[in-house]
Amino acid sequence: MVGFIDEKLVNNILEENQNPKKEDCLEIIKKAEESKGLTLEETAKLLQTNDQKVIQVMFKTAKKVKERIYGTRLVLFAPVYLSNYCSNNCLYCAFRKDNRELKRKTLTMNELKKEIEFLIQQGQKRVLLVAGEDLRHTNIDYLEEAIKTVYSTKVGNGEIRRLNINVAPLSLDNFIRLKNAKIGTYQLFQETYHYETYKKMHPQGPKADYKKRLYAMDLAQKAGIDDVGIGVLFGLYDYKFEVLCLLLHAQHLEEEFGTGPHTISVPRIEPALNAPVSTNPPYPVSDQEFKKLVAIIRLAVPYTGMILSTRENAQLRDQLFSLGISQISAGSRTNPGGYSESEKEKFDEAQFKVHDNRSLSKVIKDISNMGFLPSFCTACYRSGRTGDYFMQFAKSGNIQNFCHPNAILTFKEYLLDYADEEMKKFGEKVIQREIQNITNPKIKELTIKKLKLLEDGQRDLYF
Ligand code: SF4
Q1: Which of 82, 85, 87, 95 should be mutated for ligand 1, with most atoms under 8 A from CB?
Q2: What is the pLDDT of residue 384?
Q3: Which of 21, 277, 298, 397 could make an SS bond with 62 (beta carbons 3.0 to 4.6 A apart)?
Q4: Can you give the pTM of this predicted structure?
């Protein structure tokens, strides 16, 4: 047992709930439909069913739960890679220090500004800053300056309104500095919760310390960062074990700080340059298993956002959106300078291979056609609706009353400022469709008023 991860307990739960009965699984799914979550035992049963009928019911229920809580919204963001220097040697990552072929780069503030200008001109309002772990290149002073640069970059009506960050664990004092610099979510993935596998995958560098990583979210919370995002790199160890550990992590945060993680990310290993494990993962997760685990996480922690990156191909991503994903990156580059420098992905500078290469506008069109509403909303963070307060707000059904109209308003801004004529026409139809989905007449009326104000030139209107 390391900290709150009790491997013996997890293995016992998996063993005791093997070969679950179909009726038991259907009963669990029925209960989950009420958005009350799942116990570890219930989750273990669903993870271990192979009954196709049960899996189909599970998918339908995950979709229902997602629609009830999140409506049709899908929140969009873009990652921005600050630096690919790294002092670790993770066997699945191209940034590993032994990769001599990788072209290394740390963005200067001028280069970062150009990246942000590019994204603003695409219509993005949210970014996730990412950096390898190397104090010579991306220490806290650098990160603070980078955050300032992002928030102060403006192009026309556009700006980045929420900045999340994925960097190595920091000291309490440095987390406080991040908090004061006004980050949104602090994101960090354990990669694998399985101790032996963790040790093997992280042979050198500060990341070799399993426990330090495990408790990074506790420190972030103590520093006042109450939106934290956890995740696993699927493919390193048995996905069933990892899903139960994600839930243990969520429970731990809830017990300690009164609220679970704001988001869970579900990256799956992808080929990366000179990263031996990336092309031959020890526990590959099939597409069907991946869909299943996304649906189960949605049922287990219904109010926790779930993030999907462009590692997955467009076709699979489109299916996963319905099963529980609430936030997606789009038009991503995973190399520092990747947006402003080149039209094409540069694999010899990137962290991993991107499989959904659609532009932001193409993703917007595709998801709208599927009945989703693209959202660039950043209102909660800026209105103080974070951490426990956000969860209470979400649980009382307010995501529909606030987030849905906010999504409409931000999509309208996108259409006014960044869309071509064809997209504008198409988008207006989406907006009309979504206005009809606002059930509260007062909110509907106010939304229509705000849409008019946007047309008259106002910006950044939200509930
Ligand atoms: S996964 Fe992170 S810590 Fe590991 S080599 Fe890549 S960038 Fe460095």
Answers
A1: 95
A2: 81
A3: 298
A4: 0.95
Report d(CA 227, CA 386) in Å as an integer: 6
* Residue 3 CA neighbour count, 13 Å, CB half: 21
Structure confidence by residue, pLDDT tens digits, 285-339: 999 999 999 999 999 999 999 999 999 999 999 999 999 999 999 999 999 999 9
What domains are defined for the chain?
68-379 (3.20.20.70), 395-455 (no CATH)
| Pocket flag, ligand 1, residue 269 (CB < 6 Å) | no
What ranges make up the beta strands (E) of 176-272?
186-187, 228-231, 263-265
Distances (CA, A) of 200 to 90, 146, 192, 207, 209: 9, 33, 11, 11, 12
* Start-end of H helices in 34-189: 40-47, 52-70, 109-122, 140-152, 172-180
Q: Report which of 423, 417, 424, 411 is spatially closest to residue 451, judged by C-alpha positions.
A: 411
The residue whose C-alpha atom lies closest to atom 7 belonging to ligand 1 is: 132
303 C-alpha to ligand 1 centroid (Å): 29
